[in-house]
Amino acid sequence: MSENKQTVRLENLSIGYKGKSSVKEVACGINASLFAGELTCLIGPNGVGKSTLMRTVCAFQEKLGGNIVIDGKELEAYPDKELSKKIGVVLTHRPQIQNMNVEELVALGRSPYTGFWGKLEKEDRKIVSDAISLIGIDNLCSRMIQNLSDGERQKVMIAKAIAQQTPIICLDEPTAFLDFPSKIETMQLLKKLAKENGKTIFLSTHDLELTLQLADRIWLMQKGNITIGTPEEVAQSGALSEFIEREGITFEKSQMRVKISR
Amino acid sequence: MMFKNSGKLIIITVLILVLLALNLLLGSVKIPFADTLGILFGDRSNEIFSNIILKSRLPQALVAIMAGAGLAVAGLQMQTVFRNPLAGPSVLGISNGASLGVAIVVMMSSSLAGVSLSRMGYAGDAAISIAAIIGSLAVMTLIVWVSKKVKGNVTLLIIGVMIGYLVSAIVGVLKFFSSEEDVKAFVVWGLGSFARVSGDQMLLFVGLMIVLLPLSFLLVKTLNLMLLGDDYARNLGLNVSRSRTLVILNSGVLVAIVTAYCGPIMFIGLAVPHLCRAIFRTSDHRILVPGTILTGAALALLCSLVARMPGFEGALPVNSVTALIGAPVIASVIFRRRKDDVRE
Q1: Which of A59, A81, A163, A245 is deepest in the core (most CB within 10 A)?
Q2: What is the pTM assigned to this prediction?
Q3: CB distance from A177 to chain B under 8 Å?
Q4: Per-residue pLDDT tens digits for A43-56
Q5: Which domains are present in chain B?
Q6: Are residues A12 and A127 in the same domain?
Q7: Pairing relation of β-strands A200-204 and A39-43?
Q8: What is the C-alpha to C-alpha distance for residues A252 and A254, in angstroms, rounded to an integer?
Q9: How close, in Å, is residue B26 to chain A by CA atoms?
């Protein structure tokens, strides 16, 4: 697996929030890497700092210490425009937009490449329509965003990230509000994008079983440490059992399954 | 889709021209169509008629066009930046700032300097415009400064509304201590009018707006990205806090200048963006910005026309007319639009 190109490297990263007088550190000493062509899933209990880590990698908030290196260059060294051509994001929440159709929204993914008027050239249009067919939402093209289901809307946001043509796509709990089949469909889609399009896909999720089946690499974040490896490696290390097991719940390492006693 | 919307833009432009013609033709003094046309093309043989057209009706119509366009686009910008359909030019207290400036000048001048501005006529009008611009720009500077300190849009909106309350409270105190005559002058200013501006001041106003309105086209892409929310916008390369400041600055200056010359006109800035979203059925600011500019101008012309209808003779203040005509029209358009949505 290590033959894949490393795209993001976190070096001794500490994350958290800076107030006026106090600093609240959420996690520190994170050393990890993301690779092109891989689906990397960030899992862990609520409040451990998954979203904070995600937001820090996306440059939505400042790191407290350490380095984030993207394609050999520090995150802070990228101008806004250039960074928007490196990392695309998909968030949990539905954007509150009225009167905008799917095609228009996906086309906004071209913003980093267009001029002040946001005019799409012929090539931009092709990239937008390619992104739409790649995600398989051609039938939604002229539908209004507010009339879509949560699953359809997340696909549209992923198509936006594809149109943005970034090698890295970060998704903050993209499947949180989706029904079960849509969750699987979305995860499979992301897996395909990693495998066939060579994207670096980094997502946070609570869907453990899906993660175990589909992820190429798991980052398991727990209080004070982060365990990284393939699903098998993380399972064997015992970290997963530590994360899941409590009275009535056991994790079967051999079968990679969560067992609930009735 | 694009073609249909540009068609609508053309229809509204034609509507503006028709309303402009009606504004020139109709009024308490009957001027024949041929004479009106002649006067516009330089015929000065009838001095009374040409005075009425060139010194009253034409300036008033031009002021209405510019004021309507400016307020409408400012309202659109505010609604997008704050992602709040109830936002409008008055929401951040910018027009209240203008009121404060005017209140101070109108009501303090008599007690401090011993001259009552309400009796000064032309010079008094100029002083009022300047005071309004200073007042609203002062509040806007305060808001921009605050916007750099606070992150959340809602926080900023609340602070803006609070500043508005504070300012109107000060105005209230000033009113209490002023002479009746000055209070009346202030109240009259507050009713709004497209007719107050005349002569050189009118040219200055129209000139300023011709420079400022196109600037709002530079922010079209910014506004489109802001629709997605701060995080998505930032990810697409937008410097969110700088853009927010620029948009507030642009719409704030527009409101400040319009308010200075026409008084606080509340309704157009809030309603026209909604009307345009219903007409054009899009959130794309590449269409909405020109759309609101044109629709705002048309609506203001219509209101200025109604205010001068026989029987009213300028007795109706603009603020009442905008709301009286505009509210039912716009409510019905939006209501019908909603029903369409459900059927879809």
Answers
A1: A163
A2: 0.89
A3: no
A4: 999 989 999 999 99
A5: 2-343 (1.10.3470.10)
A6: no
A7: parallel
A8: 6
A9: 39
